[in-house]
Queue: 2 jobs
Job 1
Amino acid sequence: MLHLRRAALPFCLSLSLVSFSSHAQDDDQPQRARKATNLPAVNVHGEDWRKYLKAKLQYQMPEVDGPKITVTKKTTVTHLENQPTVIGNNLNQALARTPGVQVSEQPTPTQFNFNYRGIGNPQESEFVLVMQDGIPLEGDWIGFPTLYAFPMTQSLSEVQLIRGGSSLLYGPEPAPVINMVSKRPAPGTPLTVSTENVVGEHGLFSSYNVIERNQGAWAFRADTGYVHSDGMRANDGSQNRQADLYLAYKPDEHQQWWLDFHAFSAVSGDPGRLSYTQWQQDPRTVTTPYNRDWVNRDQLVLGHTHDFGNRWSLEAKLWFTYQDQVSRAAKAQLPGQAPPSSTTLQDEAFRTYGTDVRLRKNWGQGNAFTIGTVLFHGSDPFRQWSTPDLTVARDDHSGTQILNQRRSSQYASVFAENVFRLPHRIHIVPSVRLEHERIAVDETVRPPFLSRPLIHESDTRHMPLFGLGLGNDFGHGNETYFNVSQGWRPLRYFDIAPPFSNLMQGNAAQLSKSVSWEAGVHGAPVNGLYYDVSVYWINFRNRLETRYINAIDTIYVNTGDTRSRGLEGQLDYDFFARTEYATQGQHLDTFVNVSLLNARFVSSAIAGQVGKTPAFSPAYLLKTGVTWRNERVKLSLTAVSSAAQYWQDSDQTYGSGLTYMPARIPAYTVVDVASDWQLNRSLRLLAGVSNLANRRYFDRVWQNGIEPAFGRTWYTGFALSYD
């Protein structure tokens, strides 16, 4: 637009002078006939940058997203409204358009497992920061970063994935951030009520209900959800409940206040893990018929945005979260064996408080400066009881207490970024973040089989992080990007004081640090086409590994460094975008994305470990699919294909006979079909099939066994809406 103005200015001045001169001559010589003056033609060309920006925002985040600068950081956005409804939190389907995110599946719906680029194992997503509306979903973001609660996908509008510089935007974890964005009522929405009800295989029943309105200064949205499943094995049934409330008040066009409340409750059986031999013989075998898991999570968020004028703006959030994780676990039993004589009831509670305040200043021609702070505190008691009652209730503490720990975490950070816009459409983004972490464990009861003293341990760390991004817009809707950023994994409670080990105090592990490099190009150069391809390199130092120091004791130690490098590409194309069908609202969207990974140990304290492949680092992860959609129909076919991968860092087999575990998880491909059909304004039909080919596979394995993935399952249902 600037080039257009510069080109047009001389032309406008010339035209004004000629016009003035012509009128003067007419006044002086009124009888003289007017003569036409032929001026040389001037061609003015302007690039319609808004068109390309709108096209790119279908697949990536805005360059300056409120108080967050994402330009030069590789981002991916999945708009869930552009695909059929995801039922039962099928995360492979929900994240099919999100390159590189590996989902390790388990039937138990109280644990969610993500992995990325070979950094850490995917157990409860401990190495990936998962957030909802920019607020961590983990139990304790710092001391116990496990993911035991996940919103129903029907309540989400989009999924954002930010690589590399995510640690500079949000905080700890070396891998990327996955941020779920909640649905909000669009401006002008009248009072609307909707209900969605689905049934399916394995006793599936899913219900999701919404009431919302957004008119005038007030807006609200309330939803409730319920999912029941019998599972595919005995003691595999589950019930999930969810409730959300969003209330917003906009006193004027410059500010808004809002309140968010999220409640989640889940209970499920745990049928146990299987050896490879047991899985081959019968994947429905149950090894822990008495085990059970309960999770409750409540979160309250108060938010405020304010445009102060003079190009200053504010976004602030204050939140409180209470999460309670209770499990009943007895030893696994082989078929024909007598039941165990006792079980352990474990209760981990998390009371966490946090605030996130960010300011943005727009200055110059397209430049932006952001500064902010995050403060966080967690109080997380950890208790266990032993009881002979194998079906003890979750709140029955009448057994013998065998563990009692008070745990606390503190975190504080300040950060700043600036995007500089330079000539020739070059942009530079320097970033800095200063972080402080303190965790503490105080024990009053230790497990009776240990001889160590009671734990009274704390550890404090300070961490400066730096990042730099470079980019350049070129051609029609294309952009190059380069980013180098530091990240780190905070020490957990288990890292400074393993509760089930005789390890003495003062053996806290060193911080695990990462440096991520990424360079690529993306764009939407023609109507309907989007591409993004990049190469990456991640150095991960002081990797934490679990080591046995005797027959029963383990210790978390820094035993090596790893290097992950590879290529990640994404291609999306709408075959109808350049045809007359597009004017009729028809789309035929196809996509393919691939992550190629070469991960290796480059140093290790374990002999023979250098050169081996870290656990859960498949050489490729391929996702592809096609969606036909219009105002009435959404029909989607998606596939996820993973290469074989090791499940432990040693790359070796484990056990023999009934305890045998192969060294690698075999490669697998899973295909899903989903559809929505809007019959009329009020009625919508839903149907789908997951694992269409009934592939028998697993991708979540530990030393004590395999967790089988679901076979082919179907669902069907309807949705009604009124306004």
Job 2
Amino acid sequence: MARDLLLEVGAEEIPASFIGPALDDLKRVITERMADARLKHGEVRTFGTPRRLAVWVKDVADAGEDIIKEVLGPSAKAAFDAQGKPTKAAEKFAESLKLAVDQLGRATTAKGEYLSARVEEKGRPAADILKDTLHAAVHGINFRKSMRWGDVDTSFARPVQWLVALLGSDVLPVVFGDVTSGRTTRGHRFLSPDAIELKAPAEYEVALEKAHVVADISKRRAQLVEKVRAAASKAGAQLLEDESLVDQVTNLVELPSPVVGTFEERHLDLPPEVLVQEMKSHQRYFSLVDSAGKLQPKFIAVSNTPVRDEQLSLRGYQRVLRARLADGRFFFDEDRKTPLIDRVEKLGRVVWQGQLGSYLEKVERFRTLAVWLGQQAGRAGEAVTIERAATLAKADLVTGMVGEFPELQGIMGREYARAGGEPDAVALAIAEHYLPRGAEDALPTQDAGALIGIADRLDSLCGIFAIGKAPTGAADPFALRRACIAIIRLVLGRGYRFSLSAAVDESLRLLAPKIANAKRKAGEPAPREQVLEFFRGRLKALWGEQHRTDVVEAVLSAGFDDLVAAQKRLEALSLIVGRADFQPLAVAFKRVVNIVEKQGRDVQGGETNPQKLVDEPERNLHTAFTQARSTVSGLVRADDFSGALREITGLKPAVDTFFDKVMVMAEDKALRENRIRLLVEIGALFNQVADFSKIQAETAAAA
């Protein structure tokens, strides 16, 4: 009979950011080990609060499934002597399986014939499997930081206080440090401190709710949002949406209880981002705005328990915030006493990266690169704004406010630039060069900030690759993947047309004094190739979310130096591969590409010689190709890739007839090379849009 499994690890307050990853670890280890042991089960749920991590597995089978498996023994040659009698090897193998030699079979493998037997492997009892599983799960949680306590040798995020391990009504023995598992859990620390005895896992969630603990994270989150919004509405305001803060506060409480507080209106003359960050970063308060989105002198704090004296509690929340806002005002007032331009030289004392120099050196590089990018992208008129904004872009890093709140870099640069009388375009570019900060973030609203942002990130990419510190599968300390995706989004979002490889070359040129002596591993590609391949990988992943992977590969293989053009080629090709008649078209194109790949390298350069086209089908193909080439080139220059594909598609009948009627690999060398040269030219025409050899023609019609 199937029974439910419950594991709960109770501890002192676990940091909010640790809870989600820890639950993922618990669930992964438990489900993987149960799968390995062939122990079937139903739904798996996780629960987490600051004081507990729990996994509930429903309908666990009584034992792992029995299986019949084939076991190989010694080779047939080693198992029998010249007279065909079993050797010791055969007898030992049979004895180990409790079989007679004549009950063994034979199996043919790649290495030859071997003795074999089909044996039944009984599944282990669930209790035996789960004892080991739960022990491994509790000891296998990876925390960013762990601690030891008392005389306990093991470590955990915080001291473990209790363990619950139940299979149905039975307690499974699990030990962690000096704590042994039982059936006793605990409720809310203040509202229900007494022990709670569980008879079975099914009681868990309800018992905790009665003890003032909402253990289900999604349910607690929904309650938190509902209560906070209701409190904001009651206060005549609206909640400033902040999903990350909601997630954080959800895992700081077991029973969310919001209260509305206020702060002095005089602080509203501070930049709103400062006020929001003060409330969020240090106090985990929610900010409130009016219907127009203007910040209000109110906040919502979330307590872990309903308060008896709300005014007393509010005075505490407000007193702490008052001190924080006073600090913010002090930093703001002090920072404005020194013009932003006067801070630039101080960046020479701030290290960007040991081998690549200071922030001042980085600024000098990406300022030059940003102006160059502006010229290449047809934004030369922005040069003055770009140069000034780039000069000031990192100056706020040496201000008191950004030192206290690193999240405000760029924002404070904008405010201090305005205070120092810089043009609005310069101030805005300082803030916007950090955009987008994440996948869902907005792009800059003007060119100066966008181009500086591209230059800054490209300098980081090229520099870090050049000194041999490229990201690995497990680590990306300089956030280069995010930087690369941001560059792609900026170029495509702003429609910039410049050569990506030329931009990489220019960045590496500016970095040359710093990377001249950088050591590289033997056989390692040059930094230029590494950076471009890195872009290729990000494009493949990014575009692969919305387009067929073989179509993405076909477009990238034809080149992505102009990112905007590459995206347009992708969109055009994605439309045509969805057509029912594309499969035979792709097959015809592949024949061209395959011959070019196999034979084209042996043919000297130059165009097809029309005088050497002796058969009518090849003359017709050359005529059709010549007409199409002129049209396609014009359409490609106009970014009309759908039109270019239509023209290329029109070559199919002539291509088919050519292959049906003409012997490409003719004995006459001159004739053969001329025909191959014609196919090389046609292949080059195709390649202006995509490498059709990468497309899975057999699935194209089903797309």
